């Protein structure tokens, strides 16, 4: 048999080769332990004299195949493998129904010692036990719309117990109810409405409440029927209910509910409406988030009006943590809502209630059968840098993933899962986590630790001079006394340490001697090349065989290779000395080389950034000098602008300018100066990057100044005219008003008629005048 075939079979027999490529990604290796930590497939050779003189001890670290290929004996290879210890009661025959505690999972404890990065797979068996105990908590919405459903459940108590007995002889049932928080806007807070939130015609109506625990788990059918018959309807304002509040308290108040340690725990929730969730409490000014703790006072949720609703994630977390499987028995209009909720809550089912909930018993039986026949294997919180995958060994089990699922598992049927655990990094101490089926108390405890240390048993007889009498052998390498370093402690370093010596052999990338030599006592001893020459330089960074070639000749045959760069003979240039020195094709009509904006290499212009060949004349991406030199034109031509005080220094790039009466034909440049005048000019770039000549038009184009006197006089006249017009308008308005009042007076005067009748008791006065001195004759 050929030697290479023998080696291949040997490695396959030892499990070294598999379908995957095994690579040792070495990092900083100073010891056997460093090697083991650096990769899952890294192993250490402890064989004496395995490394060459000057070679680093990190060469002892590689894959099994590489070390064997390099001559390391198999017995000298250190490779800590994964170790697994199963619990002593892991025999499959032990899976049975114990009278005290049923056991469905084997094994129940696994102790793993893993190499970082190297996965370990073990088998986990699960068998459904017939008659496994069941705890069923009936959680009912007692809002007013559920009145007919409450009447139905009062008559179905016997049927519900019979269905539970059909599932298991060890069944218990409890009862709880909920409505909503008793604060606005969820519930009418009028004292009368709080006491009786139902319609006035409703005789049996209990006061508003959030969540009430009515009956703890019991096997007594009469007690269940008695407590349910005592219940009456209640009410609230809005449609969504405090459903999540109730589920949360039922999950975390296990001591009140009476959940047993070893049982299938079910919450049957019946409702005809949606649910409030985290954040809705802000509508009532409730800002304190739900803390997922039990608050029961006299069987009522005492923090209902003080703590916000829980989030769906919080509810899902507590249901999973407490191994509770919810069954949502809802009306048809709510089916879609609760099916979406069921996608978030693992191990949950949704069933549609009839109008009066009379089908609830059949609904519970069907939902329980679906839940119990689906086995979902998962884990709790994992330690950092630990991964677990599950491969179901059952029909339609599917590929490996972060959960293992087997469907349609019957009573007494055994299903298995291959569980693969990987620790990506070393752990300081042993840690543990639990694996088990969702919704069930049965758990496998996994105790995990890592193997990151080497256990090296050195030969008893080792020549004391192997380490030059300055150290001891540890895992095949010398562990030197203080003041000595080297493969065999041959270097005396005084107050220095080995790291400082090795640092002297490292350049920029941190590799000793660039990987082209050995670091011996702080000095690089360079390797030889295949062509006969050797690497050279302080860090072996140079060699004379890898320069650029031209026409398959090193440096084109026109130079010598020095430290990976060509040194060209006189008259030649280029990275490979491929060109004769010439600048004929680089000269412009003016005689300059590349317009002084580049260099001539291999008879071609290599322009500075932005300028284009062949002569570096144009720069399409550069900003036009009409813009960049405008301020300098103003300064040079008219001694104004921001550069007027240091014009000669700021504008020395324009080394020549002329003031002209007219500009040459073509569109000139223009710029606005500080007086808002337009300055016209032409500018031309000379050889060089920032070298210009300009012609500036003597005459500026300035806007005419406004007539101040005309503006002021016109403004005064305008104000006067406007004032007179306003006064005339006011006068006209007053005149029109007075005229209107006069016409109204005259109209009223014409309508007045004076009476001509005489007063019967009025007599005109009679006046008689006589002269006392008069005597008639």
Automatic annotation (TrEMBL):
One of its GO terms (biological process) is cell adhesion mediated by integrin. Its main location: membrane. Disulfide bonds join 24-454, 32-42, 35-72, 45-61, 198-205, 253-294, 394-406, 452-456, 475-513, 480-489, 491-505, 519-524, 521-555, 526-540, 542-547, 561-566, 563-594, 568-577, 579-586, 600-605, 602-647, 607-616, 619-622, 626-635, 632-702, 651-677. Residues 1-18 form the signal peptide. The keyword Glycoprotein applies. Pfam families: EGF_integrin, Integrin_b_cyt, Integrin_B_tail, Integrin_beta, PSI_integrin. SMART domains: INB, Integrin_b_cyt, Integrin_B_tail. Residues 626-707 form the Integrin beta subunit tail domain. It is a single-pass type I membrane protein. Residues 31-454 form the Integrin beta subunit VWA domain. The chain crosses the membrane at residues 708-734. Keywords: Cell adhesion, Cell membrane, Disulfide bond, EGF-like domain, Glycoprotein, Integrin, Magnesium, Membrane, Repeat, Signal, Transmembrane, Transmembrane helix. It is found in: Cell membrane. One of its GO terms (cellular component) is integrin complex. It comes from the Eukaryota. Residues 731-777 form the Integrin beta subunit cytoplasmic domain. PANTHER family: INTEGRIN BETA SUBUNIT, INTEGRIN BETA-2. This is Integrin beta.
């Amino acid at each position: 048999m050929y030697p290479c075939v023998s080696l291949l079979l040997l490695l396959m027999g030892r499990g070294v080769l598999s379908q995957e490529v095994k690579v040792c990604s070495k990092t900083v290796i100073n010891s056997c332990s460093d090697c083991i930590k650096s990769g899952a497939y890294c192993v250490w050779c402890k064989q004496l004299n395995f490394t060459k003189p000057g070679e680093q001890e990190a060469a002892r670290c590689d894959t099994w195949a590489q070390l064997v290929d390099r001559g390391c004996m198999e017995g000298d290879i250190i490779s800590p493998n994964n170790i697994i210890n199963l619990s002593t009661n892991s025999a499959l025959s032990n899976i049975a129904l114990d009278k005290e505690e049923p056991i469905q999972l084997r094994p129940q404890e696994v102790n793993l010692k893993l190499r970082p990065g190297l996965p370990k797979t073990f088998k986990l068996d699960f068998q459904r036990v017939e008659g496994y105990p069941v705890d069923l908590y009936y959680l009912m919405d007692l809002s007013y719309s559920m009145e007919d459903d409450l009447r139905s459940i009062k008559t179905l108590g016997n049927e519900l117990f019979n269905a539970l007995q059909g599932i298991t002889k060890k069944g218990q049932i409890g009862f709880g109810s909920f409505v909503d928080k008793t604060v606005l806007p969820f519930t009418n807070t009028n004292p009368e409405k709080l006491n009786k939130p139902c319609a006035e015609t409703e005789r049996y109506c209990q006061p508003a409440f959030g969540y009430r625990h009515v009956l703890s788990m019991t096997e007594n059918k009469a007690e269940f029927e008695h407590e349910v018959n005592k219940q009456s309807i209640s009410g609230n304002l809005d449609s969504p209910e405090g459903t999540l509040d109730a589920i949360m308290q039922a999950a975390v108040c296990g001591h009140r509910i009476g959940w047993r340690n070893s049982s299938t725990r079910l919450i049957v929730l019946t409702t005809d409406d949606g649910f409030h969730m985290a954040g809705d409490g802000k509508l009532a000014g409730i800002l304190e988030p739900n803390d997922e703790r039990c608050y029961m006072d006299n069987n009522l949720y005492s923090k209902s009006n003080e703590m916000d609703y829980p989030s769906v994630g919080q509810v899902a977390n507590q249901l999973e943590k407490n191994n509770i499987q919810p069954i949502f028995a809802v009306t048809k209009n709510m089916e879609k809502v609760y099916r979406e909720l069921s996608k978030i809550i693992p191990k949950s089912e949704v069933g549609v209630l009839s109008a009066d909930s009379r089908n609830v018993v059949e609904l519970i039986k069907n939902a329980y059968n679906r839940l119990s026949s689906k086995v979902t294997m998962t884990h709790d919180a994992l330690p950092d840098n630990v991964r677990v995958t599950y491969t179901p060994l059952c029909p339609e089990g599917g590929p490996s993933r972060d959960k293992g699922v087997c469907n349609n598992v019957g009573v007494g049927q055994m299903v298995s899962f291959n569980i693969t655990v990987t620790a990506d990094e070393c752990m300081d101490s042993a840690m543990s986590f639990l694996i088990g089926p969702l919704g069930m108390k049965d758990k496998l405890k996994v105790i995990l630790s890592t193997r990151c240390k080497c256990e090296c048993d050195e030969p008893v007889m080792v020549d004391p001079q192997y380490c030059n009498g300055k150290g001891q052998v540890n895992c095949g390498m010398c562990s030197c006394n203080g003041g000595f370093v080297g493969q065999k402690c041959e270097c005396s370093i005084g107050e220095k340490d080995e790291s400082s010596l090795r640092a002297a052999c490292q350049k920029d990338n941190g590799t000793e001697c660039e990987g082209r030599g050995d670091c011996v006592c702080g000095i690089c001893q360079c390797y030889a090349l295949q062509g006969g020459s050797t690497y050279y330089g302080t860090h072996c960074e140079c060699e004379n065989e890898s320069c650029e070639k031209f026409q398959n000749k090193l440096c084109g045959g026109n130079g010598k290779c020095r430290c990976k760069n060509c040194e060209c003979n006189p008259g030649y240039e280029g990275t490979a000395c491929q060109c004769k020195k010439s600048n004929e094709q680089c000269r412009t009509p003016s005689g300059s080389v590349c317009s002084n904006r580049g260099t001539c290499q291999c008879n071609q212009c290599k322009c500075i950034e932005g300028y284009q060949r062949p002569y570096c004349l144009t720069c399409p991406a550069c900003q036009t000098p009409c813009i960049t030199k405008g301020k300098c034109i103003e300064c040079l031509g008219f001694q104004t602008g921001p550069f007027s005080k240091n014009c000669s220094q700021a504008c020395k790039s324009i080394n020549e300018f002329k003031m002209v009466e007219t500009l040459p034909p073509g569109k000139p440049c223009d710029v606005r100066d500080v007086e808002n005048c337009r300055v016209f000019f032409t500018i031309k770039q000379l050889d060089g990057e920032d070298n210009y000549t300009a012609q500036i038009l003597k005459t500026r184009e300035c806007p005419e100044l406004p007539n101040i006197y005309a503006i002021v006089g016109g403004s005064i006249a305008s104000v006067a005219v406007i004032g007179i017009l306003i006064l005339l308008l006011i006068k006209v308005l007053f005149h029109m008003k007075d005229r209107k009042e006069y016409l109204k007076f005259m109209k009223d005067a014409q309508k007045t008629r004076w009476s001509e009748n005489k007063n019967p008791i009025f007599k005109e006065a009679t006046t008689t005048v006589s002269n006392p001195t008069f005597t008639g004759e």
